[in-house]
Write a structure and sequence with these properties.
It comes from Rhodococcus sacchari. This is Acyl-CoA thioesterase. It is a single chain. The protein is of the alpha+beta class and about 140 residues long. The protein has 2 helices and 6 strands; from the N terminus they run βαβββββα. Strands 1, 2, 3, 4, 5 and 6 form a 6-stranded antiparallel sheet that branches. Strand 5 and strand 6 form a beta hairpin. The longest helix has 19 residues.
Length: about 140
């Protein structure tokens, strides 16, 4: 679901086996939630199924996600576009609207036949531009 600002938001359930003995969701699972949010974003908004690969990810864990945090929301916006790559910022928000994690991920257009980067198509660029974050 896309809001008026262009941010794409999707709900994700906290699964029973995602948390540790302290009741906190493991940081590796948080990265999985971010991936699930990106996949839903791509499947929902991108008209083409062009291949992209993760080049870099930076995650800041701000507060724990717990079983009681569910359902969480993963918000995705585009913060930068280059010739072959783009950056998305994802924010994980719990059921009380508290920000739990923020991640910046650089994704690169990818040609699986040559295993090299390829330029983003005009069609993909237009869609990504509609989901670009508005500077604060």
């Amino acid at each position: 679901m896309t809001d008026a600002s262009g941010a794409y938001r999707c709900p994700i359930e906290v699964r029973w086996g995602d948390s540790d003995r302290l009741g906190h969701v493991n940081n590796a699972k948080i990265v999985e939630y971010l991936q699930e949010g990106r996949i839903k974003f791509f499947r929902t908004v991108l008209p083409a199924r062009d291949a992209v690969v993760v080049r870099k990810m930076d995650v800041e864990f701000l507060r724990p996600v717990k079983d009681s945090s569910a359902p969480i929301q993963v918000e995705t916006v585009v913060t930068h576009m280059g010739v072959t790559s783009f950056t998305v910022r994802q924010t994980i928000v719990d059921c009380d609207d508290a920000v739990c994690a923020v991640a910046d991920t650089v994704l690169v257009g990818f040609d699986p036949k040559t295993d090299t980067a390829r330029p983003l198509s005009d069609e993909v660029r237009a869609v990504l531009d509609r989901h670009r974050a508005v500077p604060a």
